[in-house]
UniProtKB/TrEMBL annotation:
Keywords tagged on the record: Coiled coil, Signal
Example GO BP: protein stabilization
Domain of life of the organism encoding this protein: Bacteria
Native source organism of the sequence: Roseivirga misakiensis
Official protein name in the record: Outer membrane chaperone Skp
Pfam families cross-referenced by the UniProt entry: OmpH (PF03938)
C-alpha cells in the first residue's frame, strides 16, 4: 500500500512540475558581432574613412608638437646670444605651443573628442542594424538569450551548434563568399 501511494505521489509531482520545467527551459545562442560587421562592405568603407580621419588628426597634432620641438632647438642654438628676458619669452612661447598641441590632441582624440564622435556617427547606424537583425533572428529561432562572442562577456566554451552568426548574416542579406 505504501509503495503504491509513494508511486502515485511521485507521478503526481512529475505531472505537476514537468510542464513548469519545460516552461522554464530557456534557449541560448551566440553570435560574433565583429565577424558580422567585418562581412558588411559598408563597415570596411567606414573603417577606411575613420583611418584617414585619424591619420589627418594625428598629422595635425604631430605638427604642433614638432613646431614646439623646433622652437626648443632654436632656443638652445641661440641661447648664448639672448638676454634673460628674451629666453623667458621664447620659453613661454614654447610652453604655449606644447599646451596648444596637448589641447588639440585632447579635442581630437580625448574621451569626447571629434574622432570618437565621428566613430559613433559612422558606426552606430551599422551596429544598430546588426542589433535589430539579432532581435529578428532571436524571434525567428525562439531564442531567449543570444550572447555576443566578440563582446567581453566571458564565454569560455560555446558549442558551434548554438552559433547563430550565419543566421544574422543571412538576415542582413550578406552572402558568405566561401
Amino acid at each position: 500500500m505504501y509503495k503504491i501511494f509513494s508511486t502515485l505521489v511521485i507521478l503526481a509531482l512529475i505531472f505537476i512540475f514537468a510542464p513548469a520545467q519545460s516552461a522554464l527551459a530557456q534557449k541560448f545562442g551566440h553570435y560574433d558581432s565583429e565577424y558580422v560587421l567585418n562581412k558588411m562592405p559598408e563597415y570596411a568603407e567606414k573603417l577606411k574613412e575613420l583611418e584617414a580621419l585619424s591619420a589627418s588628426y594625428d598629422k595635425e597634432v604631430r605638427s604642433l608638437y614638432n613646431e614646439a620641438e623646433r622652437m626648443r632647438a632654436e632656443l638652445r642654438a641661440t641661447e648664448v646670444l639672448l638676454t634673460s628676458e628674451m629666453k623667458k619669452d621664447r620659453a613661454k612661447a614654447i610652453q604655449e605651443k606644447q599646451e596648444e598641441a596637448a589641447k588639440r590632441s585632447t579635442d581630437l582624440f580625448g574621451y569626447n573628442g571629434l574622432y570618437f564622435k565621428k566613430v559613433d556617427e559612422l558606426l552606430l547606424p551599422l551596429r544598430t542594424k546588426v542589433s535589430q537583425t539579432v532581435e529578428v533572428v532571436c524571434k525567428k529561432y525562439g531564442l531567449d538569450y543570444l550572447f555576443d562572442k566578440s563582446a567581453d562577456i566571458g564565454i569560455a566554451y560555446s558549442n558551434p551548434v548554438h552559433d547563430y552568426t550565419e543566421f544574422v548574416l543571412e538576415e542582413l542579406g550578406i552572402i558568405e563568399q566561401n
